[in-house]
Please model this.
Amino acid sequence: IFTQIFTRSSGVKVGIDIQPNCIHLVKFQSKTQEFLDCHTEKFQLHDKDDTPLFQKNDFKAILAQTLHNFCGNDRRPEIWCSFGALKVTIHNIDIPKIKESEIANAVFWSTKKSVEFNPQKEIFDFSILKEIVKHDQTRILTLVTLVSQDEISGLQKTFKDIGFKLTGISYPPAATHNLLRFYNVINPKEVA
Model:
C-alpha cells in the first residue's frame, strides 16, 4: 500500500520493518541507492494488553530512541515503514481491457461489486499485474489492496508524535515484491 506524504528529504531513505519484538532498519543514499547502514533493535514490552503496538507509549519511546540513534543528525530522511500487523486484505480483480484513463474507476467499481468494503473507512489501492484471457476475452488482472484508514492514520500519528514523518507505508509481502522489482529479479509484466 502506498501513502505519500510530501516532505523535503535530506537525501537519505530509511526502511523500517516493525515486528512484535524487534525493529529492523536499513539506510540508503536516495540518489545513488548506495547502502549506508543497517540495524536491528530487539525490544520487549511490559504491558501485554490488546492495545495496538503503535498506540503503546513504551513502544513509541523505543521507536523514537531507535530512530534518533540510527538517523543521527539527519532528521528529515524519507521513511518507509513495513508493518506486519496491518490488517490488509488482498484480492485479484480482473476487468475488461479498456482505455488506461478508465482503469482506476473500473477496478474500484469491480472491487466494490466483488468485495464488501467501505471506502470511507478503508484505503483502496491497486496495481496492474498483466493481461489475461478469460472466456475468450482479453482482460486486465489487478492486485487490489484494502487496509483500514484508522490503522494507517494511527501509524502516521505515531511517527509524527516522535518527530518523524512517513513517506510511505507498506506491508511485508508488498515490500518484498517491490524489492524484487527494484532489483529486476521479477518483471512486473510477467507476475501472475
The mean pLDDT is 84. The radius of gyration is 19 Å.
